[in-house]
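Structure (tokenized):
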């Protein structure tokens, strides 16, 4: 799925997985506003095409299921073919899961880890092969407040994000000699369609939302733009000496 083939000479290039809605779409828009050319991935051609069209000629949509064999290499190769380089990878694609430990079957655990952990690791490896040759790059993994705190019924999701956080730190050390920085952003509860879906499953949605907001010191949910701002900073030259860190965007939740 290709738009205009015009490019900006010398412009940096970002790739955002799961970039067709919610936090991913906000990240893509913010990086484009920062002057980067942006490629986004997603499984929905309709959403992806609309997203790319809304962003303009310096955006590109790649239809892909990042868990499919060979997909990470295909995606990265498509970006390099389209733009000539890859400077920033944002591993944003994720799969939500809620369920008790005793009721969660192994296949559900595997499915969550396939997207949240293994695909992000595979995307990192594919991007790093390009960035090593460039001797420059920034990789940003979207983890979660749940990578560091425990919440009942969210054990599988928490474990998948905790594993990605551990991977982020080890990858930062390994890739540092190649001038590739690897960091994480850990959002708290964020106002997205996923939260709307979660609230709709609650017996008393308004009460559930009030409890969530009351647990946040700043007294509100994060916006997608709040999260995108953190990604923007970590992708920028202003964060040139930051690697192996996880930036919480949770309104003070994990500071308690």
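Design, position by position:
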């Amino acid at each position: 799925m290709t738009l205009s083939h015009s490019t900006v000479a010398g412009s940096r290039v970002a790739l955002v997985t799961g970039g067709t809605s919610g936090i991913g779409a906000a990240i893509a828009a913010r990086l484009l506003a920062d002057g980067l050319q942006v490629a986004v991935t997603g499984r929905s051609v309709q959403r992806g095409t609309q997203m790319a069209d809304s962003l303009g000629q310096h955006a590109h949509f790649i239809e892909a299921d990042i868990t499919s064999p060979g997909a990470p290499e295909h995606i990265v190769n498509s970006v390099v073919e389209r733009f000539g380089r890859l400077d920033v990878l944002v591993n944003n694609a994720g799969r939500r899961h809620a369920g008790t430990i005793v009721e969660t079957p192994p296949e559900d655990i595997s499915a969550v880890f396939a997207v949240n952990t293994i695909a992000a690791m595979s995307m990192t490896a594919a991007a790093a092969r390009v960035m090593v040759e460039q001797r420059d790059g920034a990789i940003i993994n979207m983890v979660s407040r749940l990578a560091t705190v425990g919440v009942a019924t969210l054990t599988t999701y928490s474990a998948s994000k905790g594993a990605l956080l551990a991977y982020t730190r080890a990858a930062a050390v390994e890739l540092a000699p190649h001038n590739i920085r690897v960091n994480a952003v850990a959002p708290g509860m964020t106002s997205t369609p996923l939260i709307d879906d979660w609230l709709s499953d609650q017996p008393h949605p308004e009460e559930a939302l009030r409890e969530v907001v009351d647990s946040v010191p700043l007294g509100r949910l994060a916006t997608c733009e709040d999260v995108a701002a953190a990604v923007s900073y970590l992708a920028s030259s202003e964060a040139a000496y930051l690697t192996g860190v996880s930036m919480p965007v949770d309104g003070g939740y994990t500071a308690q």
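Reviewer-requested clarification: The chain has two domains: 13-187+224-248, 192-221. Strands lie at 13-16, 37-42, 59-63, 88-91, 137-142, 180-187, 246-249.
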